[in-house]
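REVIEWER CHECKLIST
Item 1: Sequence provided? yes
Item 2: Single chain? yes
Item 3: Sequence as submitted:
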Amino acid sequence: MSNISRFYSKHKINNKGFTLLEAVITISIVGILAAVVTPTYIETQTEAKLVMSKSNASQLKQGIVNLYLGAFMDGEIEVWPDEPSDHKMTHNWAEATTLYDGRTVNQLYSSSTITYNPYGKPFLYYLLPETEDEPSGFRIDDPDTGVSLSFRP
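Item 4: Structure as written out by the authors:
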C-alpha cells in the first residue's frame, strides 16, 4: 500500500454538505430571482382580479338588462330592482327583492345567486334617475377594483 493510500485510509475526507461560500452564493441567487419574479406575480394577480371583476359585473348587468328586455316585450316599464339601502348587492338583498314578474333578483342568474367581486365583497347597485336627455337606468360598481358598468335603454 502506498503512502498516499495509507493517509487516505487513516484520514477519511468528509466531503458532505456545502461550504459557506456555496451556501451564500445559492441564497443570493434565490434572493435575486425572488426579487425579480415577485412584482410580476403580484401584477398578474391584480390583473386577473380586474378581469374577474369586469366579468362578474358584466354578468350582473346582463341579468338586469335581460329583465328589462323581457319586461319591455310585455309592455312593462320601470322594472329595475329596488336599490338596497346601503347599495350593496348582497345575497340577502337578492333573495329578498321581488321583481315585477314575481321572481327574485337571484333568479335572474343561471346559478340562482348573484356573484361577488374577486375579494369576496358585494358589488354596489345604484338606480340612475331619468334625465332630460336619458331614460332611467342603473349602475353597478366595484369599489375594490374601480370597475363601473351602467345601462340606460
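Item 5: Key structural point noted by reviewer: The radius of gyration is 31 Å.
Item 6: Recommendation: ____
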